[in-house]
Each structure stands twice: as C-alpha cells, then as structure tokens.
C-alpha cells in the first residue's frame, strides 16, 4: 500500500491540527477531517494520547510485562482467552507472541503490590491460563520513539550554505 | 614580523569571504534560536550503509584505493546512473570518485578553465562556483534567474550570456537555494543552443534524487548530442544522507576524466576508502531508503509552501532539493534586514537570499531538512514576526 500521508503526519505528532495536516499532505482541512472520522470508525485510528515520563512527573506508577502461557481452545484458538484478558481494565496491552510463551500482557498499577495482586487474584486463576511470569519495569529509556533522557541534540551547524 | 599579506597567493587573497558570516555567528550565540538554515539532510545515513562501512573497517580495508576509486564502486555508479537517469558512462574511463561533489567541481574547473575563459553561472546558486572559477583565473559571468521563470535558466538568457570567450556553463539543478528544477523540455531548449558549439556544460546534479511530483529528474547529459560536451557531477551526500562521508563523483568524456584524475591523484590521492565501501551498498541496496526520505521531505515541502503563501511570503512551487525560496519583498525589508530582525524578534534563523548572489535580494532560503514538528514551531514564530510588521 502507498504510504498514507495523513497517518504518517499523525504518527509523528498526534497534536497536528487539521490545517497543519492539510498543508503537509495537500488535502483540504475538510477532507482531512472526513478521513480522520472514517479512520476512527474503521478502527484504524484508535486514540490519541501523550507519551508521559511518570518519573519526571513524580507520579507513582509501576509497569510490568507479564508473559502468559495459555491453553488454546479448539475453535477459538487464542482469541477467546486473549480477549478475556484484554477486557480487564488494568491491562494496557495484550499481544499474541511467537516463541516461548503465548501472550504478552503489559499493565501498570500504583505499586508492585497492585500488580502482584492482580496477577495472583485475577490473571492466574483464569481457566485457560497455564502459567505467568511477571517482569517489572525498572526504568524507561525510550518509549514510542521518544528518548526519556532528553532528545538528541541537532549536531549540524546552525547554518550551512 | 612577517607580513603575510605580501606572501599570500594574490588570487586566493582576493576571494571575497561570505558576507553573512556575522549573521551566522550571531545566530550561533543564541541558545534559544531555532534554525531553518542547514544545507544537509537531518536523516542519519541508512543503517545498511553505515554497517557496510563498519564491516570494511572490521576486515581491515584501510589502505588507499585506486586513484580514480574502487573499480567495484565505479561500476556500481555507472549502473546506478543507467538505472535511474538513463546515462551511459564507462566505469573504467569516464568516472572519477571524488571527495564529495565539491572536489568534483574543483577538479573539473581546474582541468578546463584558462585565464580569461568565461564561465556562465546562473544565480542565485550554491556559493562555490564563483570563487573556484576565480582561483583558475577565469571570469565568472553571473546570469540572474527570475522567479517568474521558476528560477530556471532560459535559452534566451543563455544565448545573451555567450561570447567568444565562453568556455563553460554551470547548470546547478535541482537548485540550492531556490528549489527550482529544469525539466526535460527546458534542458532541451538549452541543448539546442549548445549543440554545434565548443561550449561545455558542468551539470551539478547533487540533488537529482530529490525532486517531487510525478516526473523524475532528467540530466542534460542524457539528451542527444550532450554527453560529449557535459561534465556530470553527483554524490552521496544528499540522496543518501552521507554528508560527513565526503564522497561524490564526476562522469565525463574519457579525455577530460584523464586530466581530472591527474589533478585528483596529485592533490588528493584517493577518496576515503571506508566511504567508498559504504557507498557500494548505498547504490546497490538503498533505492527504498531514498524513497522514504523523499516522501518525508515532500510532506515538509508542502507544509512550508502552503503556510508561507498563507503568510504572504509568496513562493513559487519548489520542485527539488530541500529548500523553499520565498519572496520577502512585501515586507519592504532587504533580505539581510529581514533575517536579522526575524532572528532578534523570534529567534529563527533563515539564510538571506543574497548569500547566493546579488540576485537573491528580496528572498530568503528556508531549509526543510527538519522534522515537521520543528517546522510547525518555526512557522508559528514567523507568523508572529510578520504580524508585528503591520503590513496591510
């Protein structure tokens, strides 16, 4: 597929205005608005959010990656259990993986205990969950393309001819 | 006490230093300044190319290469030129690998220009041609390009500039600083003037991969009867984001390449070996990377043109390179005053059009080798600046 220019602009900057997107892509602002509506209806665009460094914001927040092995069902494969886990509101991300385990679950809570309790009380007891391995995030260096230690400086000269 | 003024080479001493150095150093001292002044890609060299350079070092390929460049690289250059631009050059006799396109221009001029020879230079243009011609004791003949012609050199302008002393015409398209390009029909009109004369063309096509729209760049060397009178310059800096690797090439008739290779051999020896190995991978495997970068540049180009026109800084549609060249005439300011005031009021650095020849007066060069986000912030600031000027 040809690169969708509207998505390309938004992927880099979710706050780009309709006018900015229109200027960069050559569509009119109305056309961009219509396309964005359609993308949202079709589930191509699923939301916009800030990329926050919670450490710097002094917010207590613990994140964990949980490797989950499950029992696939005869007619539903992994979908049924994956969707059940995805519907738990504590869970941020659910991915079906190749390799040593089946589902990778990303979640966050206020404390290590929050997450440990969630795994023990809600995730592990689910019928088709065979085993879990919880990995806590100690420090985030880069997220969604943004360096949390500060973006790289432009090392090019200020002006060259 | 030594008096160096008496010792210097007179021609070198007489070269005018760039008049806008003061402006550049002022911008450099402003920490909150955001720049639109850079003439090189913001992208990093694609990883595959860097890896090829690293691999050559790991294998210990750290010697000089053949004077004209690695045979494999020259073969790849010629097959690339055939594939992308329908140019036919012989890798053994018609191709010289140089330290950037810049060295290619230098050795080409030094192998051709005699004292008193006239060299036609369309302006505004990149800054190296005039001083390099002067170093050869040649006479630069500037031709003023017009916005209403899309900053193209017209056949009439060319005819008017030709005298019995004309040796060479410089053709720097796609253009830094205007973003202007010469399409096939425009080149054909120039070729018509030149065929049957002894006048040579030095075509600097360093931005050949960066043209926008549906038509690909065409080289004047590909037109009938033109290869024999054309010196073709290109390089890796802009297309592959390889400015720091310092690698370019010249292709020309064998008799000229032989002389250029002689100058290159005595002045340089051979171009950087690591860069040459990396460049082989660039030519072989990186067409897709060029395309990706071009798509990104194109977004930025449209964004800038649309917004500058909205602000009344009218620009013709630039079709190549990564610059727009808006007119600032409606502000009533000179190029240099506009840039100075914009720098002080809003801390945005753009380059005065006059840096590229006196015909750049009334224009500024804005580079879009910056992220869209950076450009959005810059446009906000430029808009605030324009609003303070209280134009009707």
Please supply descriptive tags for the structure shown above:
heterodimer; A: about 160 residues; alpha+beta; 2 domains; two-stranded antiparallel sheet; 5 helices; about 30% helix; B: about 400 residues; alpha/beta; Aspartate Aminotransferase, domain 1; three-stranded antiparallel β-sheet
What does this structure look like?
The complex is a heterodimer of chains A (161) and B (392). Chain A is α+β, with helices and mostly antiparallel strands. Chain A has helices at residues 5-12, 18-25, 29-41, 79-86, 112-123; strands spanning 62-70, 91-96, 103-109, 129-136, 142-143, 146-147. Chain A is built from five helices and six strands. Chain A folds into two domains: 5-41; 62-139, Alpha-Beta Plaits (2-Layer Sandwich). The model of chain A has no long low-confidence stretch (mean pLDDT 92). The longest helix of chain A has 13 residues, at 29-41. In chain A, the strands form two sheets. In chain A, strands 2-3-1-4 form a four-stranded antiparallel beta sheet. In chain A, strands 5-6 form a two-stranded antiparallel sheet. Chain A is extended. In chain A, helix 1 crosses helix 2 (18-25) and helix 2 packs across helix 3 (29-41). Chain B is an alpha/beta fold and 392 residues long. Chain B has two domains: 10-45 and 288-387, Aspartate Aminotransferase, domain 1 (Alpha-Beta Complex); 47-285, Type I PLP-dependent aspartate aminotransferase-like (Major domain) (Aspartate Aminotransferase, domain 2, 3-Layer(aba) Sandwich), CATH 3.40.640. Chain B is built from 14 helices and twelve strands. Chain B has helices spanning 4-7, 10-14, 21-28, 47-58, 71-85, 100-112, 129-135, 155-161, 184-194, 254-267, 273-285, 287-310, 335-346, 372-388, and strands at residues 34-35, 95-98, 118-123, 139-144, 166-171, 200-204, 230-235, 248-251, 323-324, 348-349, 351-352, 364-367. In chain B, the strands form three sheets. Chain B has a seven-stranded mixed beta sheet, with helices on both faces. Chain B has a three-stranded antiparallel beta sheet with strand order 9-12-11. Chain A binds chain B through residues 3, 5, 8-9, 12-13, 16, 20, 22-26, 154, 156-161, and chain B through 18, 24, 27-28, 33, 35, 37-40, 42, 126-127, 176-177, 295-296, 299-300, 302-303, 306-307, 349, 351, 355-356, 371-373, 376.
């Amino acid at each position: 597929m040809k690169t969708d220019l509207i998505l390309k602009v938004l992927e880099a900057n979710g706050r780009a205005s309709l006018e900015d997107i229109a200027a960069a892509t050559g569509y009119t602002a109305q056309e961009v608005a219509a396309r964005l509506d359609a993308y949202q209806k079709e589930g191509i665009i699923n939301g916009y959010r800030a990329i926050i460094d919670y450490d710097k914001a002094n917010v207590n927040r613990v994140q964990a990656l949980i490797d989950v092995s499950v029992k696939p069902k005869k007619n539903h494969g992994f979908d049924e259990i994956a969707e059940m886990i995805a519907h738990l509101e504590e869970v941020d991300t659910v991915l079906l993986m190749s390799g040593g385990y089946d589902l990778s679950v990303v979640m966050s809570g206020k404390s290590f205990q929050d997450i440990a309790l969630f795994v023990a009380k809600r995730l592990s007891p689910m019928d088709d969950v065979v085993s879990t391995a919880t990995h806590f995030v100690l420090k985030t260096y880069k997220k969604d393309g943004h360096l949390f230690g500060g973006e790289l400086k432009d090392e090019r000269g200020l002006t060259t001819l | 006490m030594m008096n160096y003024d008496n010792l210097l080479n007179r021609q070198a001493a007489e070269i005018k230093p760039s008049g806008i150095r003061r402006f550049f150093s002022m911008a450099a001292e402003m920490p909150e300044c955001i720049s639109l002044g850079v003439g090189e890609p913001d992208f990093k060299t694609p990883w595959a190319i860097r890896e090829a350079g690293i691999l050559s070092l790991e294998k210990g390929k750290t010697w000089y290469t053949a004077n004209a460049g690695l045979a494999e690289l020259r073969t790849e250059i010629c097959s690339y030129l055939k594939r992308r631009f329908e140019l036919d050059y012989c890798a053994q006799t018609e191709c010289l690998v140089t330290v950037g396109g810049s060295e290619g221009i230098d050795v080409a001029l030094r192998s051709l220009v005699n004292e008193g020879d006239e060299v036609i230079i369309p302006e505004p243009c990149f800054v190296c041609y005039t001083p390099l011609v002067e170093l050869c004791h040649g006479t630069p003949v500037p031709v003023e390009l017009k916005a209403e012609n899309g900053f193209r050199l017209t056949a009439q302008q060319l005819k008017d500039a030709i005298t019995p002393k004309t040796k060479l015409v410089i053709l720097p398209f796609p253009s830094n600083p205007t973003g202007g390009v010469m399409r096939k029909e425009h080149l054909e009109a120039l070729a018509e003037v030149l065929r049957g004369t002894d006048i040579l063309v030095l075509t600097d096509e360093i931005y050949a991969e960066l043209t926008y729209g549906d038509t690909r760049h065409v080289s004047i060397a590909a037109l009938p009867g033109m290869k024999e009178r054309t010196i073709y310059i290109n390089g890796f800096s802009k297309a592959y984001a390889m400015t720091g690797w310092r690698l370019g090439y010249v292709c020309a008739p064998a008799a000229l390449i032989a002389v250029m290779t002689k100058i290159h051999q005595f002045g340089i020896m051979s171009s950087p070996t690591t860069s040459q190995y990396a460049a082989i991978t660039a030519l072989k495997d990186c067409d897709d990377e060029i395309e990706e970068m071009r798509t990104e540049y194109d977004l930025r180009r449209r964004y800038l043109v649309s917004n500058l026109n909205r602000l009344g800084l009218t620009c013709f549609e630039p079709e190549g390179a990564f610059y727009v060249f808006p007119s600032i005439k409606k502000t009533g300011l000179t190029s240099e005053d506009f840039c100075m005031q914009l720098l002080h009021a809003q801390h945005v650095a753009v380059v005065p059009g006059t840096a590229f020849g006196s015909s750049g007066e009334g224009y500024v060069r804005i580079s879009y080798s910056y992220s869209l986000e950076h450009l959005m912030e810059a446009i906000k600031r430029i808009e605030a600046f324009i609003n303070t000027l209280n134009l009707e």
